[in-house]
Amino acid sequence: MDQLWLILKFLLLGLFQGLTEPIPISSSGHLLIAQYFLDVQIEGSVSTFALLVNSASLIAVLIIYREDVQRLVVNGLKYFTVKNTDTKRDFMFIVYLVVATIPAAIIGLLFQDAIDDKLSTIATVGLTLVVTGFGLWWIRNMRGQRKDGNMTMKDAVIIGGAQAVALIPGISRSGATIVAAMARGINQETALRFSFLLFIPISLGGAVLSITDIMKDDNLAAMAIPYIMAFLGSLVASYFSLKWFMNIMAKGQLKYFAIYCFIVGPLVVFAWFLLN
């Protein structure tokens, strides 16, 4: 019975992480909230769990954006031999993705442990959810006109900086990058695409950095089935959550996520205050 409950719990945690990863409400913040208020602890290695559920979300992103990824790779390589409008646009889009990855990569390498130790608290999550809400509310009515071919290096640096800020629990990565992109006048479709294609290198980098910790996971064999269930739950939930979010973005309804953050953030802080 205990093993069955463990498997079910990991499945639910995977579904929860996958549901909240694509949408702009911070999956890491909500996972902390679930662990704190529902007293749900992650048995085994937290690093292994994080790698599996994030890898599942990455696969979902790759499935949904597979045509964009294929086009970028083909045209990016072709640019070195055939220079035209399409190859230049896609080559520069790749360059901007690389540049936007750098701030979070550097800050993550230097300060991730400190962030985890000092800022991974319920009070922080409650406050930063409100910050996320303000960002989403700010851009709720923006309808930029700039597309892939109109992006600049300055855009990449600003969006990359926003992603670095999202290392703080409660600041949504997708929310921060979409807010930064749309505030720069980039249209909704390009902002969404850039945000989730930007998830690919940062997720791959995190996976590489986690390999050492996973190799030290003494419970890897014993936790194999719960880990697999968490992976599958996250994969399915991430796929459908991202498809749903793409529809929300197309309709320009980001305000509902802002309202959600405005409600949940103060409630989390208030509940934490009462319990402490």
Topology:
Elements: H1 2-20, H2 27-37, H3 46-64, H4 66-78, H5 85-119, H6 122-139, H7 153-165, H8 173-183, H9 188-215, H10 224-251, H11 255-275
Helix pairs in contact: 1-2, 1-10, 2-6, 3-9, 3-10, 4-5, 5-7, 5-9, 6-8, 6-11, 7-8, 8-9
Description:
Belongs to the UppP family. With 276 residues, this protein is mainly α. The protein has one domain. The protein has eleven helices and no strands. The mean pLDDT is 92.
- Share of residues in helices: over 70%
How confident is the prediction overall: mean pLDDT?
92
Rg from alpha-carbon coordinates: 19 Å
Helix-and-strand structural type = mainly alpha
Ends apart, CA distance between termini = 33 Å
User: Using DSSP, what is the number of strands?
Assistant: 0
Beta-sheet strand percentage? under 5%
Low-confidence spans: pLDDT under 50, at least 5 residues? none
CA-based shape: globular
Q: How many discrete structural domains?
A: 1
Element-by-element helix/strand order: HHHHHHHHHHH
Largest sheet: none
List the main descriptive attributes of the protein structure presented here:
276 residues, mainly alpha
Gist of the model:
It is found in: Cell membrane. The chain is mainly α.
